[in-house]
Structure formats: C-alpha cells, structure tokens
Write a structure and sequence with these properties.
The protein is α/β, with parallel strands linked by helices and 396 residues long. It has 2 domains: 3-213, HUPs (Rossmann fold, 3-Layer(aba) Sandwich); 218-396, Elongation Factor Tu (Ef-tu), domain 3 (Beta Barrel), CATH 2.40.30.10. The chain contains 8 helices and 18 strands. It has helices at residues 12-23, 48-63, 73-89, 96-115, 162-166, 177-186, 208-213, 243-250; strands at 3-7, 27-34, 67-71, 120-122, 127-133, 139-145, 168-169, 221-225, 262-267, 290-296, 301-306, 314-321, 325-327, 339-345, 353-359, 363-373, 380-385, 388-394. The strands form 3 sheets. Strands 5, 6, 12, 13, 14, 15, 16, 17 and 18 form a 9-stranded antiparallel β-sheet that branches. A 5-stranded parallel β-sheet has the order 3-2-1-4-7, with helices on both faces. Strands 9-8-11-10 form a 4-stranded mixed β-sheet, with no helix packed on it. Strand 14 and strand 15 (353-359) form a beta hairpin. It starts with a strand and ends with a strand. The mean pLDDT is 92.
Amino acid sequence: MKKVVVGLSGGVDSSVAAYLLKQQGYEVIGLFMKNWHDDSVTISDECPWLEDSNDALLVAEKLGIPFQTVDLSEQYKERIVDYMFAEYERGRTPNPDVLCNREIKFDVFMDIALSLGADYVATGHYCRKGELIDQQGNTHYQLLSGKDPNKDQSYFLCQLSQEQLSKTLFPIGELLKPEVRAIAAEQDLITAQKKDSQGLCFIGKVRLPDFLQQQLKQKKGSIVEISADLDLYNQKQTSFESIEEELEQTSKAFSYELSDGKIVGEHIGAHFFTVGQRKGLDVGGTPEPLFVIATDVKENIIYTGQGKSHPGLYRSALKIDASEMHWVREDLMLKEGESIEVMARIRYRQPLQKARLYSFEKASYLMFDEPQSAITEGQFAAVYQEEELIASGVIN
C-alpha cells in the first residue's frame, strides 16, 4: 500500500483531498504546518493557526488517519518572510504564496514527509498532474490547470520542479469547488462550510501592511500625479538593431522625475505600495481614481495616474533574467535565440494572455499581443501551452 502525507491546512480543500486518497486505497497521514509564531499581526482576538490546527485534527479523527503538527516557522521566516521584507525594501512586490510552495510545502515539508516513509505528498490545490513518456522512455511530469476555472491554482505552483512533481498528488484537481464542499458535507467534515483563507500562506489572517510595518519603517514622501499626455508616452522608436534590443526597450518600465507631474498628496513609504494599486492613497478630488503607476524607493516618491486606462500602467513586454527563469518542463526549454507562441499570466486569476516567449543568453522576454496593465517587478509570470504550465520566472 502506497503511503501519502497530506498537508492538512484546516480548510475544506485539503480535508477532501485526504478523504479521496483514503477512498483510493492509500495509507494517509495528516500533517499540519505551523509556520508563524507572532500573533500580534493577526486580526482581532482570533488565533487562526490554532483554530486551523484544531480543525485539521478533527478532520483527521473523523477520517481515522494519524495526525501531527510540524513547526516550520524558522524555515518560513528565513526563506519567505526575510525575502519578502528584502524585496519590498527594494521596491519590488514578491508573491509569498508561490515562494511558500517552492520553499516550504514542496521542499522542507516534502523532506519531512519522505522521512516518514511517504511515497507521495498531497495538497488541496486545484490543479492536475499529467505524465508523458518520450521515445527514449523518459517520464515528463506535467503541471496542468485545475478543472475549476474559478479556482485554478496552477499559477501558485509555477516554480515546482520535475523532481517535486514526481512525488506530488493533487486529488481535487478534477473537481469544482461546489463538488468539493458537497463531498465534505456528505462526510460530515467540520470544514465543509469553512470560508477560504485570505491571509498570507499558512500565516493566517494577516494584514499585509501591518506585517510589513513590523520591519519596514514609515517614511513620509510625495504622491505625484502624472498626466496621461506626458511626452514620454508618445515617443516611438521604430528602428532597432535586433529583436533583443527591441524587447529590452519595450520591457522597460517608464521612468519619471518629480518635475514630470504635480504633487497631490503624501504617503507613509514608497515600499508599502505597488504598481496598479488604488487603495490606500487617500487622495480625493480627481475626476477618476488615482492608480500607482510607479514607485521610487530611493527618492521615496509614488507616481500616480488617473483611471485604469492611464498609459503609464501599460507595457507590451516583460523581462525575466536568465537566473530567474524556471522551466517546469525542462525538455521544452528554449535554446538561445529561439521563441515560441504561448499563453501567459502575470498574476493569479488573470485570464491567460496571448504572447511570444523569447530566449536569449542573459534574459527571456514575454511579448504580449495586447499591452498588459500593472506588470510588476518581483511578481511571477507563468507560461502555458494550452492547459499545461511549462515555465515561469520573476519579472524584472
């Protein structure tokens, strides 16, 4: 009998994942990850990790499977939290959920599971795994989008490797969310009606600004409004020496100076804001709401523009440094100078966008058919062919 360790989070998805695996004849063990100790940044008087741990225990008891809690808070702080603070300080916007999957769930946690004699690790992610065998008899594992288009979580797993995928199961990937809740209700699981968590990965219900302000100091600076008619947006260079030069130029974010606009307000620190953000600016009196179009953490200035169609929000290409490019399907990796048509997304839940992926010695580039809003440094771009996620990288 194959042994599977399920990451029981105390939510409905992992609960049903554990139930389905047991039904399929696996020997199932439930493991809860405790990743954070500091309760000062959780909301009100709730203690979410304790509540979630208790729910996970009750589910394990109901299913008749062994259960234990593992404390990974030291690794989580080192690999996720410290990285997040460093990235925000640089004026970038990291994605802790993608990192948590790569560094914690499918690395540290997987090592613990395998040390317990597990053949596989399973999670409650809405995605699927496929297997292809090539003519030489080599197996290639596919990361496929979940059947539920509203819940597909393949984006969050975009940094997984072939080795990690080979030992992973996604039991609910073929199901829709209402079906998962129905199974939980039928089995009388305590998590059947529990709301999905909205906090940082495994920390709980954390207000991100509160979390950041623990370590990043407040520092007042100017909010500058940039006109949509700025000459910068109308400069068009038509002749490039190479496609690489064109991509390098097209992928660059617009750069502003204080004299390009007018000061319309004050903020508490440029590193607390991200491109595309509308809330938290507290500037009124404009015909259309202001959106962040750029942040300058060195000068501590936020540049904004009116309306979601402001040209400062849009770019047609993005750059991924060679060291930050990751191929889930290593056998599909592009050689230098090659390009392929793909679908891509630059944030979770964004509909897939048509693009072409180019590979060069120092960087890869995604050139989109349509300009994209709020391409954000530090976020992950995920690359698909049909329903398979084949590669990803950190946007530069």
